[in-house]
Amino acid sequence: MFTDSLLKQLHLIAGSRYVFTDEPTRMAYGHDETEDFSFPPTVVVKPGTADEVSQIMKLANEHVIPVVPIGARTGLSGGALSIHGGIGLSMERFTSLEIDEKNLQAITGPAVITQVLREAALEKGLFYPPDPSSQGSCSIGGNVAENSGGARAVKYGVTKDYILNLEVVLPSGEIIWTGANTLKNSTGYNLTQLMVGSEGTLGIITKIVVKLIPKPTHNVLMLIPFFKAAQACEAVAAIFRAGVVPSALEFMERDAIDWGLKYLDHVNLDIKPEVEAHLLVEVDGNYPDVLFSEAEKIMGVAEQFAIDEPLFADTEEQKNALWKLRRTVAEAVKSNSVYKEEDTVVPRYELPVLLKGIKQIGKKYGFHSVCYGHAGDGNLHVNIIKGDMTDENWKVEVPKGIREIFELTVSLKGTLSGEHGIGYVQKNYMDIAFSPVQLQLMKGIKQLFDPKNILNPGKILPDAIA
Amino acid sequence: MFTDSLLKQLHLIAGSRYVFTDEPTRMAYGHDETEDFSFPPTVVVKPGTADEVSQIMKLANEHVIPVVPIGARTGLSGGALSIHGGIGLSMERFTSLEIDEKNLQAITGPAVITQVLREAALEKGLFYPPDPSSQGSCSIGGNVAENSGGARAVKYGVTKDYILNLEVVLPSGEIIWTGANTLKNSTGYNLTQLMVGSEGTLGIITKIVVKLIPKPTHNVLMLIPFFKAAQACEAVAAIFRAGVVPSALEFMERDAIDWGLKYLDHVNLDIKPEVEAHLLVEVDGNYPDVLFSEAEKIMGVAEQFAIDEPLFADTEEQKNALWKLRRTVAEAVKSNSVYKEEDTVVPRYELPVLLKGIKQIGKKYGFHSVCYGHAGDGNLHVNIIKGDMTDENWKVEVPKGIREIFELTVSLKGTLSGEHGIGYVQKNYMDIAFSPVQLQLMKGIKQLFDPKNILNPGKILPDAIA
Question: Which keywords does the record carry (chains A, B) (predicted)?
Answer without folding.
Answer: FAD, Flavoprotein, Oxidoreductase
